[in-house]
Automatic annotation (TrEMBL):
GO molecular function: molybdate ion transmembrane transporter activity
Provenance organism: Candidatus Dechloromonas phosphorivorans
Domain ABC transmembrane type-1: 9-215
Topological type in the membrane: Multi-pass membrane protein
Entries under PROSITE patterns matching the protein: ABC_TM1
Protein known as: Molybdenum transport system permease
């Protein structure tokens, strides 16, 4: 495997790890709110979170590019703070990937929170546990399968991104060129052997991820 391929693999793993950690921090309160709220805004927020499931990645990438560009609100803010432009940088890739993979983390955690029901939390309240204590000592442990599923799906989905990362990151070696873009480059250059190596690795990785998800996640096991 060529050094540029290894660099793309390393960058992809780094991106997926950072994005998954951020998604768990960002997605958990969103999932908790969606699972518990009776607000009329629940449908709106849920639809916004789920948008990446139906929107073409290039549409998301285009609007993120506009938003983070020199004339966009985020771009003007980062320029004013002396941070420069986010497009075609690794931080820009992280932000785009967080948006694109958000439903793959939020929805499994939300489903896990909803499956808990009210009784465990009411029992914790009778023992004088604060809502914060009940969340960490009752809700989070009971929702662990949802966190596992969300983390696995978020990581795997980030690994396989193409449209969004190409729109936001471009194709800069060692900075924004991830595995999916590297495969595209190999195919475009008719380097099918290198493309086979990376594509086969992605295929094997995807199979192992799904096998682990369906084998070890207790929420997906059939009752005895």
């Amino acid at each position: 495997m060529h050094s540029t391929d290894l660099a793309a693999v390393w960058l992809t793993l780094k991106l997926a790890t950072v994005v998954t950690v951020l998604l768990l921090f960002i997605g958990t309160p969103i999932a908790w709110w969606l699972a518990r709220t009776r607000s009329r805004l629940k449908g709106v927020v849920g639809a916004v979170v789920a948008l990446p499931l139906v929107l073409p990645p290039t549409v998301i990438g285009f609007y993120l590019l506009i938003t983070m560009g020199p004339n966009g609100p985020v771009g003007r803010l980062t320029e004013a703070l002396g941070l420069g432009m986010l497009p075609f940088t690794f931080p820009g890739l992280v932000i785009a990937s967080v948006f694109y993979s958000l439903p793959f983390v939020v929805q499994p955690i939300q489903n896990a929170f909803e499956a808990i029901g009210e009784r465990p939390l009411e029992a914790a309240a009778t023992l004088r546990a604060s809502p914060w204590d009940a969340f960490w000592s009752v809700a989070v442990p009971l929702a662990r399968p949802g966190f596992i599923s969300g983390a696995i799906l978020g990581f795997a989905h980030t690994i396989g991104e193409f449209g969004v990362v190409l729109m936001i990151g471009g194709n800069i070696p060692d900075r924004t060129r991830v595995v999916s873009v590297q495969i595209y480059d190999h195919v475009e250059a008719l380097e099918y052997t290198q493309a086979h190596w990376l594509s086969g690795g992605m295929l094997l990785f995807s199979f192992v991820v799904l096998l682990a998800l369906y084998t070890f996640n207790p929420t997906r096991r059939k009752p005895a």
